[in-house]
Amino acid sequence: MNIPSVKELVSAEEWQVRTDLAACYRLVAAHTGMLVIWFTTLIVNMRHMLYAATLLPYVAHLPARWRWLLGFLLTDETFAVVASYYQRNPNPPYGHWYFLGSGLAMYTNWQAWTLVGLLFGAVFPQLQSLGLDFAMVATFIAIVVPQLKRLPQLGAALAAGCFAYVLRGLPYKLGLLTAVFIGVAVGIVLTRGRKLEESRQEAAA
Amino acid sequence: MNGMNGMNGMNYSVMILGMAAVTVFVKAIMFILGDRVRFPPLLNLALSFVPVTVLTAIIVPMILAPHGKDMELDWHNPQLVASLVAVAVCLASRKQLLTIVAGLAMFFAWQMWMHV
Fold it and tell me: What is the tens place of the pLDDT at every residue in A61-93?
């Protein structure tokens, strides 16, 4: 039996409308996929807003083109280096040059090695099992450990580490973000508690 | 990604450019708008905890579950052993470069030894 196709059953005008609609659906579907990807990009990179808010007091006085540039160059690694630099030097006159140097070094290094991996990665199939990312772990340990002298910092880091581990299965780095918020809350509570304790001791003395 | 079936090369370029734009926006927007706002003291206190918490939160899962699955809390995990050494060296010496070099050396030595 010969089943007639839709095209044979409908008028030429209706067929035109149907094909136009189908094209529209495809377009919307493709763009919805794109919107989802852009939104995911936003969520995955959300922690950079925390980085920027933390470093803001040190760059707020700079001209806008400087702030765009430093924002563009802000990465996990540059934040690690620059935040610890500003902690050690609260008011450096040329701090933004330090920021720029770190950002440029990290950014070009990152791009260069990405290119090397793209071009020659297939030659070293074992590369992923070498654990080269441990360099980042060792560097962050060297940056974080000296900052844990005070109890609020230690408590905040312990809480953030525990929750980052427990929530590591969450998508879009949401586990990381949640862990940071919990760690920060613990740090605030410990700071407040310590201040209360001090004022009580003063009142008793 | 069912919706991506209709994508061609041009669309992928638009998608990647859009991702780049979103990323730069997320990173720079605070710096750009920030000179007009003044944070309350509590927010400043909160932000002072961002470096230690975020850096710790990034590395702890890499140390405890380096293969992204279950916890590997034993001596066969070179990430864990080398991290403990790095923390010890950092506490004892207070030298950043020494900490990094000692941690990396321990990591690769331990990994090689485990594979023998």
Answer: 999 999 999 999 999 999 999 999 998 888 888
Amino acid of residue B113: W
For the question of an ipTM over 0.90, the answer is no
**Closest residue to A134, CB basis, from B15, B61, B107:** B107
Q: Which residue of B has its CA nearest to A35?
A: B15
Q: How far is CA A196 from CA A184, A186, A193, A202, in A?
A: 18, 15, 5, 10
| Whether B22 contacts A43, CB under 8 Å | no
Write the CB contacts of A130 (distance below 8 Å, at least 6 apart in sequence): B111
The tens digit of pLDDT for each residue in A136-157 reads 999 999 999 999 999 999 999 9
DSSP string, A134-166: HHHHHHHHHHHGGGG-SHHHHHHHHHHHHHHHH
Sign of CA dihedral A78, A83, A84, A89: positive
Please give the DSSP secondary-structure letter assigned to residue B74.
Answer: S
What residue spans define the domains of chain B? 1-37, 50-116
When scoring B58, B84, B101 by the number of chain A Cβ atoms within 10 A, the one with the most, hence best to mutate, is: B58
**pTM assigned to the model:** 0.77
Helices and strands per DSSP (H, E), number in chain B: 5, 0
